[in-house]
Design goal:
This protein is α/β, with parallel strands linked by helices. It is built from 10 helices and 6 strands. It has 2 domains: 151 residues, HAD superfamily/HAD-like (Rossmann fold, 3-Layer(aba) Sandwich), CATH 3.40.50.1000; 71 residues, Putative phosphatase, domain 2 (DNA polymerase, domain 1), CATH 1.10.150.240. α9 links the parallel β4 and β5. Bound molecules: xylulose-1,5-bisphosphate (XBP) and magnesium ion. The site of magnesium ion has 7 residues, from loops.
């Protein structure tokens, strides 16, 4: 019996990664670093989840020692810029997301999110796209550094399940990426995937379904039909 839906944020609720990339690049420019991540660079770097981890990987790629580099401060500046870009209204929910959340709420399913990004970014997205505080959209918000190991580790999903006080068989995850799917599956969750612009080439073994967009799910009845053979 499904009690909750747990949503990834970046790439799943909305196509956020181009705004993340812009925020990173604007921050690098303002800091006088002379770095610019192209779309191709970013596609490669996205396999490292988490902004601070991504900056650290970039330093390593450049042959620089991340120790002593102000990664956290640079990332905090990026988070501020990203929030401002979102508040300027440059983001829309992916097709099917608003209807799915609304129907889930109507039928009494609980809602959570489990994301690599930080809590202020979840707040900014919810304010801009749902017109509500994140806490009014999701009962449980599992985000960012709340766990030590980010996706594809299962920790963030386990954290969300513990906060919901549910077992993995009582919830379904929604993801856009191979790393997200691996995290959800490793936590024991069934997972519906709809790839986004940066994850179209990913492979999704073990997904409950791989959809072009979440409106293809057919709502909660469609989800129940997918789950039926497994139960
Ligand atoms: C998303 C991420 C995040 C964002 C940037 O992965 O990897 O790092 O790109 O967010 P997922 P921060 O959708 O699988 O959670 O800079 O705030 O980390
Ligand atoms: Mg994602």
């Amino acid at each position: 019996m499904i009690r909750a839906l747990i949503f990834d944020v970046d790439g799943t609720l909305a196509e956020t990664e181009e705004l993340h990339r812009r925020a990173f690049n604007d921050t690098f420019r303002a800091a006088g670093l002379g770095w610019h991540w192209s779309r191709a660079d970013y596609g490669r770097l996205l396999t490292t989840t988490g902004g601070k981890e991504r900056i650290t990987r970039h330093l390593q790629d450049l042959g620089l020692d991340p120790a002593g580099f102000p990664v956290a401060a640079l990332h905090a500046a990026k988070t501020e810029r990203y929030g401002a870009l979102i508040a300027a209204g440059e983001l829309a929910l992916r097709p099917g997301i608003a209807a799915l959340l609304a129907e889930a709420r109507r039928v009494g399913l609980r809602l959570a999110c489990a994301t690599t990004t930080s809590a202020p970014n979840v707040e900014a997205l919810c304010r801009a796209c749902f017109g509500k505080a994140a806490g009014d959209v999701f009962e449980v918000i599992a985000a960012g550094d709340i766990v030590a190991a980010k996706k594809p580790a299962p920790d963030i999903y386990r954290h969300a399940l513990a906060d919901l006080n549910l077992g993995p068989e009582q919830a379904v995850a929604f993801e856009d990426s191979a790393n997200g799917l691996r995290a959800a599956r490793a936590a024991g969750l069934a997972c519906v995937v709809s790839p986004g612009v940066y994850t179209l080439q990913d492979e999704f073994p073990g997904a409950l379904a791989v959809l072009d967009c979440f409106s293809e799910l057919g709502g909660i009845a469609g989800l129940a039909a997918l789950l039926a053979p497994a139960q």
